[in-house]
Amino acid sequence: MANLVVTGTVPGTILENNRAGDWVASLTLSGAAGALEVALTGAGAAQFTATLDAARGRVTITPAILDREAFPAGADPVLTFGLAVRFAGGWQDSGQQWSVTLAGIDDTPPQTLGFSSGGVVLENDIGAEIGMLLASDPDTDAAQLSYSVPWPDAARFEMVGRTLKLLEGVDLLTEGGSEIPVMIEVSDGRQSAAFTVMVKVLNVTDEDDLPAPPPILPPPPPPPVSPPPPVSPPPPVSPPPPVSPPPPVSPPPPVSPPPPVLPPPPVSPPPPVSPPPPVSPPPPVSPPPPVSPPPPVSPPPPPPVSPPPPLPPPPPPVSPPPPLPPPPPPVPTPHPLAIGETLHGFTRISTDVVTSLHMVWDAERIVTGPDHLTQIALTSGEMVWMGPVTRIAFANGAIEFSGSSDAAEIVRLYQTILGRAPDPEGLFNWVEHMQHGMSLAHAAEGFFGSQEFISRFGGLTNEQLVVNLYREALGRQPDPPGLAFQVAALNGGMSRAQLIANFVDSPEAAGKFEGSHPGGVWVRDSEATFVGMAYDAVFDRAPDATGLPFWSQKLASGEMSIRQMVEAIATSNEFQARHAHEDNAAYVASIYRSALEREPDPTGLAFWVDHLASHRMDRVDVVMLIGISDEQKAQFSHHPHGDAFLG
């Protein structure tokens, strides 16, 4: 037997839902010349795969996709395995074992909620306790879950720990004999879910019943009519007093006689008139000389008549006035979604979260105003308004408004370290790593080798680094106590990556982000996007409400690869009805039209048909290579107008 010695490093912890490259063990074989293959042994061997590089004498161990919830609750499971090497003479065990602890992460919200006791209340019991609730969460202990009652049910109910009760001074009179739905939100500190529980109200009193109307009685008989009293005679009329005679009238005074009329004075006779002088006879008059007749006068010739001046050209026709512009469209009145309300495919499931089966490109624009009221205008012309929320979840991603979300922290990490916003792919990749357990400090460390980081932070002293972090992360100069504290932390051994994470994750930085990003940040969901692309390619439609979460969960958990999902979809009745009757050319053309919205070019069509006919490809390969091609991905990266979308 060979003198086999195995050395190397096997990380002691692995996070659930790990991605390729997150966890890798590398072992070196000594004295293993002629090794043919390797295999893992032990109870945990099935969870890992070992690969031999015989030329270099190395063994690489990679894990399967591990789900913490697939193991019993309680302490994290420990996966133990050994290594065996096969030589020409047979298998040889290395005699060594390694143990790896599978650590869970919070990747699922609470799943169920119900009454563990109670659930019944008397209608007249003011402020009564109704019952004890208990929720389940696959990756969070029940004792760590918190419960709350959102509006409008919060007007009558409240949670005290796990106990649902009526508010002080509140009863349920008039609702006896019925069951009332009450919405409860359950949070594990990272994710939340809303549930409805039914409260049974017992009818135990009639004090809330309407009283019977009073009996209608006949009207009382009219009272007897009394005879009128006798009429007294009028009092005697006294005679009028005697009238005194009028006083005597005095005679008028005597009238004086008029003065006498005097005769006119005598008229003097006129003076005598002298006779006129004699008149001399007139002198004789000579006859006038003869008058010669005037010469005949020739009439002057008439002046030449000038032609009339030309008429001015007619005025140009008057253009009709331009048409009046159409009246502006009416301004829609905002009506924010209420909790539990659904409108145009959007549902507000809780105070903080709105969900929708729309793909994000079904919207033309998504705008959030300074009042944190978000308007979503769909390409179909419909409009949806929603009040302040922390998350709007579309079928293929979400807009995150909270400064404490993974997306917000990655945006701040880029701005702090690199002085710029992340590109969409960078944002998506880092957020996905954080959602699968990567710490913010680990993410920060991933930037240290970049030239952008070195040019901004390379070679700084601890104090210079802290001053720069105050300026870049918080937008201000450090206060003396804060500066001293942070420098002391670095001098005491805190890593620079952890210090950067502390600044980026601080409440001050989160609040600053929310103020500067009222429209939130869009992060796509990779699994849902792949499901949407597959449905678009084979069915030419969006996924339905059942199919999208089903296939997305299969991909996210690692239970299926993308190809396995397409293979499963291809067995459906809808796929068979749509494509089973098509020959290869018709099938390829159908996938082109559905996925790429165009007809295939002749060269491309001939290529695909030839590969199908020669069995170098099957129909699932065509969906994979056309339906999930770069051209299709570019179409699926389209997004509406809005501040949430980077790039």
Characteristic terms for this protein:
single chain, 647 residues, alpha+beta, Immunoglobulin-like, six-stranded mixed beta sheet, 25% helix, 22% strand, Cadherin-like_dom
Structure description:
Residues 206-339 are annotated as: Disordered. It comes from Teichococcus wenyumeiae. Residues 127-217 form the Cadherin domain. The protein has 647 residues and is an alpha+beta fold. The chain folds into 5 domains: 5-103, Immunoglobulin-like (Sandwich); 112-202, Cadherins (Immunoglobulin-like, Sandwich), CATH 2.60.40.60; 342-400, no CATH class; 406-518, serine acetyltransferase, domain 1, CATH 1.10.3130; 525-636, Orthogonal Bundle (serine acetyltransferase, domain 1). Helix content is 25%, strand content 22%. The strands form 6 sheets. Strands 17-18-19-23-24-25 form a 6-stranded mixed β-sheet. Strands 1-3-6-5 form a 4-stranded antiparallel β-sheet, with no helix packed on it. A 4-stranded mixed β-sheet has the order 2-8-7-4, with no helix packed on it. Strand 21 (374-378) and strand 22 (383-386) form a beta hairpin. Helix 1 (406-417) packs across helix 2 (424-435), helix 9 crosses helix 15 (619-627) and helix 13 packs parallel to helix 15. The protein is globular and about 100 Å long. The model is unreliable at 210-219 and 224-289 (pLDDT under 50).
Topology diagram in text:
Elements: E1 5-9, E2 13-15, E3 25-30, E4 37-41, E5 48-53, E6 58-63, E7 78-87, E8 90-103, E9 112-118, E10 120-122, E11 129-136, E12 146-148, E13 157-160, E14 163-166, E15 178-187, E16 192-202, E17 342-343, E18 346-348, E19 353-356, E20 363-368, E21 374-378, E22 383-386, E23 391-394, E24 397-400, H1 406-417, H2 424-435, H3 440-445, H4 451-457, H5 462-474, H6 480-491, H7 496-504, H8 507-516, E25 521-524, H9 526-539, H10 547-556, H11 562-570, H12 573-579, H13 584-596, H14 602-613, H15 619-627, H16 630-636
Parallel strand pairs: 2-8, 10-16, 19-23
Antiparallel strand pairs: 1-3, 3-6, 4-7, 5-6, 7-8, 9-11, 11-14, 12-15, 13-14, 15-16, 17-18, 18-19, 20-21, 21-22, 23-24, 24-25
